[in-house]
Amino acid sequence: MPAIKTNRNSSKKEVIISKAAKLFREKGFSATSMRDLAENVGVEAASLYNHIRSKAEILQEICFRVANQFMTHLEEMENSKQSSIAKVQSILQFHIRQMIHNYEAVHVADREWKHLTDPYLSNFKTQRKTYRQRLAGIIEQGIAKKEIKKIDAPTAVLIMLHAVSGIESWHRSKQKISAEQLEENMVIILVEGLRAG
Predict the structure, then answer these.
(1) Does domain 12-48 have CATH number 3.40.30?
(2) Angle, alpha carbons 192-109-151 (nearest 5°)
(3) 173 — phi, psi (to 5°)?
(4) Among 115, 197, 192, which Cα is nearest to 156's?
(5) Which single residue of 26, 58, 166, 167 could bond 99 by disulfide (Cβ 3.0 to 4.6 Å)?
(6) Which residues contact 93 (CB under 8 A, 6 or more apart)?
(7) Which are the contacts of 45, defined by CB distance < 8 A and separation ≥ 6?
(8) Which listed CATH number (1.10.357.10, 2.60.40.10, 1.10.1060.10, 3.40.1010.20) goes with 60-191?
């Protein structure tokens, strides 16, 4: 029976999670079977269970890992001495870079989280809501300091996050600008539009 191929930097479980993220993005969580995953990893389905309990466990791992990365960066910005506009720019750039370099997992966390089951589903929904509220809070601080235009902060958050989600079509594009140009363009369009003065 073939073994799961790993490299120096990843465990067998990491390989499984990485392959699963790619399959969940391509086929959707519901349409991906453990047999599909086993074939993709290159092992018998039964041997997957030595490393993970279920497909649901993999989805939990992907969703909460991504959510925690975003929340950790947001907290760093909340505690930073930078201007509000600089904080918003850093958060936006973090989102863009994650969507470019960690695309499979971020896409799954953004689109497939609805397949989580409780208590994970409720927890994840709460985390998403809290994240958006705290990001809106940073924008509201910027408005109070007259660094950011008088706008509705939750709407600004919605527009920013939907724009980042749209990077999915950049991945599919055959004639695309570089990742650096993409980030630069998005920052100009989204951050400069917020700047007061």
Answers:
(1) no
(2) 25
(3) -65, 140
(4) 192
(5) 167
(6) 183, 187
(7) 34, 35, 37, 38
(8) 1.10.357.10
Residue 42 φ/ψ region, left for φ over 0, alpha for ψ in the -120 to 50 degree band, beta for the rest: left
Phi, psi for 195 (deg, rounded to 5): -65, 130
pLDDT values of the chain reduced to their tens digit, one per residue, 197 residues: 344 455 554 577 888 899 899 999 999 999 998 888 888 888 777 778 878 888 999 999 999 999 999 999 999 999 999 999 999 999 999 999 999 999 999 999 999 999 999 999 999 999 999 999 999 999 999 999 999 999 999 999 999 999 999 999 999 887 789 999 999 999 999 999 899 87
Q: Which neighbouring-strand residues pair with 117?
A: none
Domain with CATH 1.10.10 in the chain: 12-48
DSSP SS3 for 128: helix
Looking up tokens 């989805």 gives 59
3-state secondary structure of 135: helix
| Contact by Cβ (8 Å): 165, 107 | no
Instruction: Extract the tokens encoding 105.
Output: 């997992």
- The CB-side HSE value for 187 (13 A sphere, CA atoms) comes to 19
